[in-house]
Specification:
Blueprint: E1 13-16, E2 19-25, H1 39-56, H2 61-67, E3 70-80, E4 89-100, E5 103-111, E6 117-128, E7 135-136, E8 169-175, H3 191-199, E9 209-216, E10 225-232, E11 236-243, E12 246-255
Antiparallel strand pairs: 1-2, 2-4, 3-6, 3-9, 4-5, 5-6, 6-7, 8-10, 9-12, 10-11, 11-12
Length: about 260
């Protein structure tokens, strides 16, 4: 019998001058019932790869916490060029894109084994004091110089998402439970993708996602309930999650035909 271990491929990872690259296989747990990658899994990779980049430079969460400087995800835009499926191997590259107003920008490009672009992301991060939660200017970051990346990314810029005042439909409540929390003690940014998709009207859940925007406004913590409201458009859906202290997130899903 052939030794299956000889056919196992070692996935590559690489620390770039201004970024980080790594290969990952999409598991069944990363994907939905159609075996397409879940939005929540993509958002989780956005958070994870920012950590991989800084960890590889010795700038771990623990180190930055002691320095009183951590980055929190503020908003992002995501474009699906071709939706990857279970068992596909993606090469995911992330790079810092410089400072834009109060944000540090970071981009992500996810390609399949043939080098075809699958997912592009542009994200905005804010620098905060992890204890006081005071927002700091990105120029105050002392651990390293923020990298620059000038090449064009095939993705829209993050933007403010708002819902109209009329024509909203209630989508129920979503309680924050223990398994939702990350090391900061609040609802993990990747979880929002699943919250959004679970609350979508049933006829829209199977639709292929083309672009997605989300604003993270306030942290949600254990036991809090998010009141979910939505607004249907012709090829899109807007959603807002309101917690005890106001809006926690707003999101916009735009749908289209799936590319092969």
């Amino acid at each position: 019998m052939e030794d299956q271990g000889e056919n196992m491929e070692d996935f590559k990872q690489e620390l770039l001058e201004n970024g980080y690259r790594r290969q990952e296989e999409l598991t069944f747990a990363d994907c939905d019932r159609t075996q397409r990658v879940r939005l929540g899994a993509l958002l989780s990779k956005v958070a994870a790869f920012a950590g991989y980049d800084y960890d590889a430079r010795g700038l771990t969460y623990e180190y930055l916490y002691r320095q009183g400087e951590v980055f929190l995800l503020s908003r992002l835009a995501l474009r699906v060029h071709r939706c990857p499926r279970a068992r596909e191997v993606l090469t995911i590259t992330t790079r810092e894109r410089g400072i834009k107003g109060p944000h540090m920008q970071r981009i992500y490009e996810m390609e399949d084994r043939q080098g075809r672009g699958c997912i592009s992301v542009i994200s905005d991060w804010i620098l905060v004091d992890p204890v006081s939660r005071k927002i700091l200017r990105p120029t105050a970051f002392t651990a390293k110089a923020i990298g620059e990346y000038s090449q064009e990314v095939d993705c829209p810029e993050p933007m403010k998402v708002a819902l109209p005042r009329e024509g909203l439909e209630p989508l129920g409540q979503r309680r924050v439970v223990w398994s939702d929390l990350d090391g900061n003690g609040h609802l993990f940014s990747g979880k929002y993708g699943d919250i959004v998709w679970d609350a979508l009207p049933g006829d829209m859940q199977p639709l292929p996602l083309k672009t997605f925007f989300i604003n993270y406004s306030r942290e949600a913590t254990l036991g809090q309930c998010l009141e979910l409201m939505g607004h249907r458009e012709e090829y899109a859906y807007r959603m807002e999650g309101i917690g005890p202290r106001g809006t926690c997130f707003t999101a916009l899903c735009e749908f289209g035909e799936e590319n092969a």
